[in-house]
Amino acid sequence: MAAFHPRHHKLFSHHHLHPPGADLRRLFHRLTIASSLSIICFSLVYLLTGCCESELTENSEAKASPRDFLVTGSGWPYGRNGTDPVGEGALGSGYPSLENSSGKAWTATRKLPQALIIGVKKGGTRALLEFLRLHPDIRALGSEPHFFDRHYARGLNWYRSMMPKALEGQIVMEKTPRYFVTVDTPQRVHSMSPDVKLIVVVRDPVTRAISDYTQIISKAPNIPSFESLAFKNHTTGLIDSLWSPLWIGLYAQHMEHWLACFPRTQIHLVSGERLILDPAGELGKVQDFLGLQRIVTDKHFYFNKTKGFPCLKKPEGSSKPHCLGKTKGRAHVSINPKVVLRLRQFYKPHNQRFYQMVGQDFGWK
Ligand SMILES: Nc1ncnc2c1ncn2[C@@H]1O[C@H](COP(=O)(O)OS(=O)(=O)O)[C@@H](OP(=O)(O)O)[C@H]1O
Description:
Blueprint: H1 6-15, H2 20-48, E1 109-110, E2 115-119, H3 125-132, E3 138-140, H4 155-162, E4 165-166, E5 171-175, H5 185-192, E6 197-202, H6 205-219, H7 226-230, E7 231-233, E8 238-239, H8 244-247, H9 251-259, E9 267-271, H10 272-277, H11 279-289, E10 301-304, E11 309-312, H12 337-358
Parallel strand pairs: 2-5, 2-6, 3-5, 6-9
Antiparallel strand pairs: 1-4, 7-8, 10-11
3'-phosphate-adenosine-5'-phosphate sulfate (PPS) binds at residues 121-127, 177, 211, 214, 275-276, 309-310, 324, 328-330, 332.
Keywords: Disulfide bond, Glycoprotein, Golgi apparatus, Membrane, Signal-anchor, Transferase, Transmembrane, Transmembrane helix
Organism: Nothobranchius furzeri (Turquoise killifish)
InterPro entries: NST/OST, P-loop_NTPase, Sulfotransferase_dom
């Protein structure tokens, strides 16, 4: 038999002291409070699971995006603070990112880039971008969007949609080395943003041309030899300066177009050679140029003797150190030293003009 509790009895009796209308009002009042509370709880759950607005969370990356058709060509399988071939932040790196910066993800949006690595092809642009991506205040697109040179007709909204989401204060950037040599690009970049910061990685144009040719022949093994493409007339030593691997190295010519649109102070030049010898030193200057704290330092790098290039030390959350892929830092095709000498003579006045134009001597022989 259930025990009779005096309090239950009191409550029971108390209820019966009120008229039935008052009971109904109280019941209605309680129901109103209960339903308001459940609406608030439901809204909170809805917000926290990110269902309310696809722009709000990084999870929306899972849906197919126009970016999917792009290739990275980086040979760099991991993304840190930016997009990567398999989705943003695939690697838990321990560096602050949208995924683990509690609360901040709510304000992440896609913005047009504030900084661009515009060239040069084979200068070391991938290494620079991947190293910069270690910085928590940089959000970089992993692939090359080729917006200003190939996809300009798609418009700025398309371009913006390609960018990784960024928080307030983070710098969004991308690299497309072909921008440096496409004549329409400086004006187009300027009309997007006259304040954009531009970065060019330059490398000895002779080594750069051989690197370029090494890549071309790796994809099309039956193309003519470097020598036969580099010379209009081998006997007289007349150079074909319109052959793309040589034409790209006429830095002064391309730089002129950029300086017609942007002040020199808005363009930062990285030495491709120093990026290999002293990555932290070059990265320090780039971070200064971008107005960022020097967070990427020599602590992040080690020299991989087998590869012969600097690589990244084991990032937190990853099991191994990381080097760029096989197509970056590969052995070059061997070129007759006399041809190399002739090319050095050819580039000498062009290089001098470039040094004068930018006020920086890169010391190419
Ligand atoms: N850390 C590190 N690891 C590997 N490679 C490095 C690195 N730093 C600079 N480099 C040099 O980058 C050259 C490739 O340049 P890019 O990335 O600009 O090439 S591309 O335009 O994107 O195809 C690549 O050219 P090659 O040596 O001819 O392969 C490298 O010399």
